[in-house]
Amino acid sequence: MRIPFIAGNWKMFKTVQETVVFVKELGGFVKDVADVEIVVAPPFTSVHSAAVAARNTNIGVAAQDLYWEREGAFTGEVSASMIKEAGAEYVIVGHSERRRLFGDTDRAVNRKAIAAIGAGLTPIVCVGETLEERERDQTLAVLDRQVKDGLDGLTGDQVGEIVVAYEPVWAIGTGRHATAAQAGEAHAHIRKRLGQWFGAGAADRCHVIYGGSVKPENISELIAEPDVDGALVGGASLEVGSFADIVTKSRPAAV
Ligand code: PEP
C-alpha cells in the first residue's frame, strides 16, 4: 500500500534560523501522524539544520536539486553524496523551474535521478506539460517523453521506490490547480506507462504525487483520486499551519 506522500518545496525561501523554527513547529503539529510521509525541501544552506531539527520526528528532509558528479571542479554544484551526508533522504530533480530557468534537460534529469539513487537518496522526479502543450493536446506525449527519458536505465525495483511528481507547469505558483479529473487522468496515464515500461510491481509501488497550487482548500479533492498519492506543495508549504493542514487532510481516514 502506498501511504500518502506530502512534500513542501520551499524554493529559495527561508534562512537556517527560519528552517529550524518551522521544522520544530511542524513536528509538534504532525507528531501523531503515522500514516502520511512528510517531507520538507529547504534550500541547500538549510538542509543540514533541517535534518538535525527533524531528528526523532516523522519529518524527512529533501534537497531541491543535485549535480550528478560525485565531486570535482563544478563551481556552485552539490553532489548526491554531499546531500545525503548533510542528512537528506530525498532530492527533487527536474522541477519545472530548473528545466525552464536553468536548462535542465530530460537527459540531465535522468543523470540526476541515477546519481540520487546511487547515493541512497530517493529522487522526486518532476514532470509536467506547459499550458501551450496542453492546449495543443500534447500533455500525454510530453509526460511519456519526460517519464521515459527521465527514468531511463532504472530497474523496476528502483522505480518502485522513487516518487514521480506530476506538476503541470501552468499550475505552479499560479493559483490555478489542475482539476481532480485532469490530475486523475495524468496520474493514471503515468502509472499505466510505469507498468508497461518497468513492470506491474513498480507501477504499484511508485508514488505519483501532484503539484501545482495545492492548498488546504483543494487537497481533499485531489488526493481522493485513486492514482494521486500525495502532493508536492510550493507556496502553501511556507506557512507551517497551512502545510500541516494539507498533511492532516491527506490522512487516509480524512479522504
Ligand atoms: C512547486 O514548486 O513544486 C509547486 C507546486 O508550487 P506551488 O504549490 O506554489 O504551485
Chart the SSEs and their pairings.
Elements: E1 5-9, H1 16-30, E2 37-41, H2 44-53, E3 59-63, H3 80-85, E4 90-93, H4 96-102, H5 106-118, E5 122-127, H6 131-135, H7 139-150, H8 156-161, E6 163-166, H9 180-198, H10 200-205, E7 207-211, H11 219-223, E8 230-233, H12 240-250
Helix pairs in contact: 1-2, 1-12, 5-7, 7-9
Phosphoenolpyruvate is lined by residues 9, 11, 167, 172-173, 211-214, 232-236.
**Cα radius of gyration in angstroms:** 17 Å
Principal-axis shape equals globular
Portion of residues in helices? Answer: 40-55%
* Oligomerization state: single chain
Structure write-up:
By secondary structure, the chain is of the alpha/beta class. The protein has a single domain (5-254), classed as TIM Barrel, CATH 3.20.20. Helices cover 45% and strands 15% of the residues. It has twelve helices and eight strands. The protein has an eight-stranded parallel barrel, surrounded by six helices. Strand 2 (37-41), helix 2 and strand 3 form a beta-alpha-beta unit. Bound molecules: phosphoenolpyruvate (PEP). The site of phosphoenolpyruvate (PEP) has 14 residues, from strand 8.
